[in-house]
Amino acid sequence: MNITTEQFKEMFPRATEPEAWAAALSAVMPRYGINTSLRMAAFLAQCGHESAGFTRLAENLNYSAEALTRVWPTRFPPEIARQYARQPERIANRAYANRMGNGPEASGDGWRYRGRGVIQLTGKSRYLAFAQAVGATLEDVCAKLETKAWAVESACWYWSTRGLNVLADVRDIVTITKRINGGTNGIDDRQARYAQALTTFTA
Protein backbone atom coordinates (compact mmCIF):
# COMPACT_ATOMS: atom_id res chain seq x y z
CA MET A 1 0.00 0.00 0.00
CA ASN A 2 1.48 3.33 -1.12
CA ILE A 3 0.73 6.97 -0.44
CA THR A 4 -0.15 9.06 -3.47
CA THR A 5 0.92 12.62 -4.04
CA GLU A 6 -2.69 13.72 -3.65
CA GLN A 7 -3.01 11.96 -0.29
CA PHE A 8 0.24 13.46 0.94
CA LYS A 9 -0.85 16.97 -0.10
CA GLU A 10 -4.18 16.49 1.65
CA MET A 11 -2.46 15.59 4.93
CA PHE A 12 0.50 17.96 4.72
CA PRO A 13 -0.52 20.99 2.65
CA ARG A 14 2.42 23.13 3.80
CA ALA A 15 5.10 20.67 2.70
CA THR A 16 7.08 21.43 -0.43
CA GLU A 17 7.85 18.82 -3.11
CA PRO A 18 4.92 16.53 -2.25
CA GLU A 19 5.67 14.24 -5.19
CA ALA A 20 9.16 13.53 -3.87
CA TRP A 21 7.92 12.95 -0.33
CA ALA A 22 5.20 10.56 -1.51
CA ALA A 23 7.74 8.65 -3.57
CA ALA A 24 10.20 8.39 -0.67
CA LEU A 25 7.52 7.20 1.73
CA SER A 26 6.11 4.67 -0.73
CA ALA A 27 9.58 3.27 -1.36
CA VAL A 28 10.59 2.85 2.28
CA MET A 29 7.47 2.20 4.41
CA PRO A 30 6.69 -1.27 3.01
CA ARG A 31 10.18 -2.52 3.91
CA TYR A 32 9.37 -1.85 7.56
CA GLY A 33 5.88 -3.36 7.49
CA ILE A 34 4.12 0.01 7.43
CA ASN A 35 1.77 -1.30 4.80
CA THR A 36 -1.84 -1.05 6.01
CA SER A 37 -4.11 1.95 6.35
CA LEU A 38 -3.94 1.78 10.17
CA ARG A 39 -0.15 1.57 10.25
CA MET A 40 0.34 4.27 7.65
CA ALA A 41 -2.13 6.61 9.37
CA ALA A 42 -0.44 6.23 12.76
CA PHE A 43 3.06 6.55 11.30
CA LEU A 44 2.29 9.61 9.20
CA ALA A 45 0.42 11.30 12.04
CA GLN A 46 3.46 10.99 14.29
CA CYS A 47 5.85 12.06 11.53
CA GLY A 48 3.60 14.98 10.71
CA HIS A 49 3.67 16.21 14.28
CA GLU A 50 7.40 15.71 14.78
CA SER A 51 8.33 17.45 11.51
CA ALA A 52 5.72 20.24 11.62
CA GLY A 53 3.87 18.76 8.68
CA PHE A 54 7.01 17.62 6.80
CA THR A 55 8.40 21.17 6.81
CA ARG A 56 11.22 20.77 9.38
CA LEU A 57 13.89 18.07 9.28
CA ALA A 58 16.13 19.39 12.06
CA GLU A 59 15.31 20.20 15.65
CA ASN A 60 14.50 23.83 16.37
CA LEU A 61 16.68 24.81 19.33
CA ASN A 62 16.27 28.58 19.15
CA TYR A 63 14.86 28.85 22.68
CA SER A 64 14.31 31.93 24.80
CA ALA A 65 15.67 31.90 28.35
CA GLU A 66 12.18 31.30 29.73
CA ALA A 67 11.56 28.39 27.39
CA LEU A 68 14.91 26.80 28.25
CA THR A 69 14.06 26.79 31.94
CA ARG A 70 10.62 25.37 31.25
CA VAL A 71 11.84 22.56 28.98
CA TRP A 72 15.08 21.67 30.81
CA PRO A 73 14.76 23.08 34.34
CA THR A 74 17.75 21.21 35.77
CA ARG A 75 20.09 21.94 32.86
CA PHE A 76 19.00 25.53 32.38
CA PRO A 77 18.08 27.21 35.66
CA PRO A 78 17.27 30.90 35.08
CA GLU A 79 20.79 32.24 35.60
CA ILE A 80 22.23 29.69 33.13
CA ALA A 81 19.36 30.01 30.66
CA ARG A 82 20.05 33.72 30.23
CA GLN A 83 23.59 32.91 29.08
CA TYR A 84 22.44 30.40 26.45
CA ALA A 85 19.21 31.91 25.11
CA ARG A 86 18.84 32.09 21.31
CA GLN A 87 22.11 30.22 20.71
CA PRO A 88 20.96 26.88 19.22
CA GLU A 89 24.36 25.21 18.97
CA ARG A 90 25.35 26.04 22.55
CA ILE A 91 21.88 25.02 23.77
CA ALA A 92 22.12 21.62 22.07
CA ASN A 93 25.59 20.97 23.42
CA ARG A 94 24.49 21.62 27.00
CA ALA A 95 21.01 20.07 26.79
CA TYR A 96 22.25 16.78 25.36
CA ALA A 97 25.65 16.53 27.06
CA ASN A 98 26.67 13.29 28.79
CA ARG A 99 23.61 11.30 27.75
CA MET A 100 22.30 9.32 24.78
CA GLY A 101 25.89 8.34 24.00
CA ASN A 102 27.03 11.95 23.75
CA GLY A 103 30.18 13.32 25.30
CA PRO A 104 30.47 16.41 27.51
CA GLU A 105 29.28 19.84 26.44
CA ALA A 106 32.66 20.77 24.98
CA SER A 107 32.63 17.75 22.65
CA GLY A 108 29.99 19.31 20.42
CA ASP A 109 28.07 16.02 20.32
CA GLY A 110 24.81 17.64 21.39
CA TRP A 111 24.72 19.75 18.26
CA ARG A 112 26.27 17.10 16.01
CA TYR A 113 23.64 14.54 17.02
CA ARG A 114 20.67 16.86 17.52
CA GLY A 115 17.21 15.77 16.41
CA ARG A 116 17.02 15.17 12.67
CA GLY A 117 14.71 13.43 10.23
CA VAL A 118 10.93 13.27 10.29
CA ILE A 119 10.93 11.54 13.70
CA GLN A 120 13.85 13.58 15.07
CA LEU A 121 16.52 10.93 15.63
CA THR A 122 18.56 12.28 18.57
CA GLY A 123 21.81 11.35 20.31
CA LYS A 124 25.01 9.62 19.22
CA SER A 125 23.86 6.19 20.38
CA ARG A 126 20.76 6.34 18.21
CA TYR A 127 22.63 7.75 15.23
CA LEU A 128 25.15 4.92 15.57
CA ALA A 129 22.47 2.23 15.85
CA PHE A 130 20.76 3.57 12.73
CA ALA A 131 24.06 3.78 10.87
CA GLN A 132 24.83 0.15 11.71
CA ALA A 133 21.34 -0.96 10.67
CA VAL A 134 21.63 0.57 7.21
CA GLY A 135 25.34 -0.11 6.68
CA ALA A 136 26.42 3.51 6.85
CA THR A 137 28.94 5.55 8.81
CA LEU A 138 28.16 8.13 11.47
CA GLU A 139 29.44 10.76 9.06
CA ASP A 140 26.97 9.58 6.41
CA VAL A 141 24.09 9.79 8.86
CA CYS A 142 25.02 13.30 10.01
CA ALA A 143 25.32 14.46 6.41
CA LYS A 144 22.18 12.85 5.02
CA LEU A 145 19.49 12.75 7.73
CA GLU A 146 17.98 15.94 6.37
CA THR A 147 17.49 14.47 2.89
CA LYS A 148 14.05 13.05 2.14
CA ALA A 149 15.25 9.48 1.62
CA TRP A 150 17.21 9.31 4.88
CA ALA A 151 14.69 11.34 6.86
CA VAL A 152 12.06 8.74 5.95
CA GLU A 153 14.40 5.75 6.35
CA SER A 154 15.43 6.82 9.86
CA ALA A 155 11.81 7.37 10.89
CA CYS A 156 10.74 3.96 9.60
CA TRP A 157 13.73 2.32 11.29
CA TYR A 158 12.95 4.01 14.61
CA TRP A 159 9.28 3.07 14.30
CA SER A 160 10.28 -0.55 13.77
CA THR A 161 12.74 -0.65 16.68
CA ARG A 162 10.01 0.59 19.03
CA GLY A 163 7.53 -2.08 17.94
CA LEU A 164 4.97 0.49 16.85
CA ASN A 165 3.23 -1.43 14.07
CA VAL A 166 1.59 -3.65 16.67
CA LEU A 167 0.29 -0.61 18.54
CA ALA A 168 -0.91 0.96 15.30
CA ASP A 169 -2.93 -2.19 14.59
CA VAL A 170 -4.96 -1.56 17.76
CA ARG A 171 -5.09 2.23 17.30
CA ASP A 172 -3.14 2.94 20.50
CA ILE A 173 -1.96 6.43 19.63
CA VAL A 174 -1.25 7.38 23.25
CA THR A 175 1.26 4.57 23.80
CA ILE A 176 2.83 5.21 20.39
CA THR A 177 3.28 8.85 21.38
CA LYS A 178 4.90 7.87 24.69
CA ARG A 179 7.36 5.57 22.93
CA ILE A 180 8.34 8.32 20.51
CA ASN A 181 8.19 11.34 22.79
CA GLY A 182 8.74 9.90 26.25
CA GLY A 183 5.42 11.45 27.30
CA THR A 184 2.29 12.77 25.66
CA ASN A 185 3.59 16.11 24.41
CA GLY A 186 1.49 17.32 21.46
CA ILE A 187 -1.08 14.56 21.86
CA ASP A 188 -3.98 16.70 20.62
CA ASP A 189 -2.20 17.50 17.37
CA ARG A 190 -1.09 13.89 16.96
CA GLN A 191 -4.66 12.66 17.48
CA ALA A 192 -6.03 15.22 15.02
CA ARG A 193 -3.47 14.25 12.40
CA TYR A 194 -4.28 10.58 12.96
CA ALA A 195 -8.01 11.16 12.47
CA GLN A 196 -7.33 13.04 9.25
CA ALA A 197 -4.95 10.34 8.00
CA LEU A 198 -7.52 7.63 8.66
CA THR A 199 -10.06 9.57 6.66
CA THR A 200 -7.58 10.04 3.83
CA PHE A 201 -6.71 6.35 3.59
CA THR A 202 -10.22 4.97 4.04
CA ALA A 203 -12.17 7.49 1.95
Automatic annotation (TrEMBL):
Keyword Chaperone: no
Record organism: Geobacter anodireducens
Source taxonomy: Bacteria, Pseudomonadati, Thermodesulfobacteriota, Desulfuromonadia, Geobacterales
Domain Glycoside hydrolase family 19 catalytic: 40-162
Coiled coil: none
GO molecular function, one term: hydrolase activity
Pfam family, one: Glyco_hydro_19
Gene3D superfamilies for the chain: 1.10.530.10
Record bears the keyword DNA-binding: no
Name recorded for this polypeptide: Glycoside hydrolase family 19 protein
Domain of life: Bacteria
Keyword annotations: Hydrolase
